[in-house]
Input
Amino acid sequence: MMKRIKTIDAVGEELVHDLTRIVKDVHKGREFKRGHIVQEEDIQRLLSMGKTHLYVKDNENDEDLIFEEDAAVRLKDLCINEHMYAGEISEGKIEIFSDIDGLFTVDIERLNKINELKNIMIATRWGGVPVKKNAKLAGMRVIPLFIKKDELDALIPFETGEPLLKVHPLQDKKVGIVITGSEVYHGRIEDKFKDVLESKCNDYSLEIVDVQYSDDDMDMILKKISVVREKGANIILCTGGMSVDPDDLTPGAIKESGAEIITYGSPVLPGAMFLLGYFKDGTTIMGLPGSVMYEKQTVFDLIFPYTIADITLTKRDIAKLGYGGLLMNPSREN
Output
């Protein structure tokens, strides 16, 4: 499959793997591609790269060894899904990119088990975050130039079922906003929530079908929720009145509206007083704590992309947000 020879004796030989040239702060990349036939003029350049010996093609095959590029293709097939494409193999590595704007998710449990295997690695970007078209999602390779067949076959239990990676298309959702609080309703203070939520919706090109204001009154909040539903909202954002103060009625009103409450409270700061629920027709309703109004990132920013991608979350999904759930925003002390 390959043999090791002196570089000065390699003219006419076929390289069996990519060769990388590194110049600090200037260049790092493939200098010679697998399959290149070494020419006389290549010798000095190879020596300047520190290549005093080369691995070149040997006609003898070893069926127990699999070349790094062939192994990388197998890892790619384990990961790639619809709405993705793979780049060219380079230096034994394949990278996967998104073909759309969407929400990127990873089967973390399977990924971790695969990365425990000998001589195999898959690196992904953080899951649960929106990605743009052509964003890099993952890179994968095996560690040695040639991997033993039985080491690569350790992947077999993971090669059934769904690929490890997904990009969920963002949907054309319509948003209704219900802003509660007597101080805003009666004009005692200026509403600041509307502009914040409009900006976050604009980031995803979502249509806001209506904005309703309500006094601290259970029946009125219920009526306003019904109004935005009737106007076609399939995401309803209710602001204010989410703390444990007896006058804060928003959680009770959402419960009375007929929505199934998935969680009232989240293991994320800022945003502990967050509420998430679903109506039977799939409409999502959220109760947003005051921190959404003034913090750059809260639990709402973690949950909102899932809603736009039409992913229904469970209490367990929310519980998982606790790890890394202390969000260090510029407006807070680190």
Summary: The radius of gyration is 27 Å. Residues 218-230 form the longest helix (13 residues).
